[in-house]
Amino acid sequence: MVGSARVLLVAAVVGFLATTACGAAQRDYAAALTKSLLYFEAQRSGRLPPTHRVQWRGNSALKDGADHGVSTSAMHACVVRCTCLVRA
Where is the signal peptide (predicted)? Predict the structure, then answer.
């Protein structure tokens, strides 16, 4: 949960800076950032929280690997967490 709060904080700061930056190029960085975060949210697998914003996406991959005694349902969360730790 701390990792997602950190991502949201960074997104808010970047969005704020993008909307208050010099408007010479007239690029909507806030919209691009919002769409990027929504894309990554849609890529999650496993049991999704009730706060999940992608309405068409449901729980997935809950039993993947079960025939070999492996659970892959939390794989995306692990990858995101590890990526954040490497960049920190």
Answer: 1-25
CA-CA-CA-CA dihedral for 87, 79, 13, 23, to nearest 10? 90
pTM of the model: 0.44
Residue 74: domain span: 2-87
Q: Quote the number of domains for the chain.
A: 1
3-state secondary structure of 9: helix
Residue whose C-alpha is closest to residue 29's, from 38, 41, 40, 20? 20
**Is 1's pLDDT higher than 60?**
no
DSSP structural state of residue 85? H
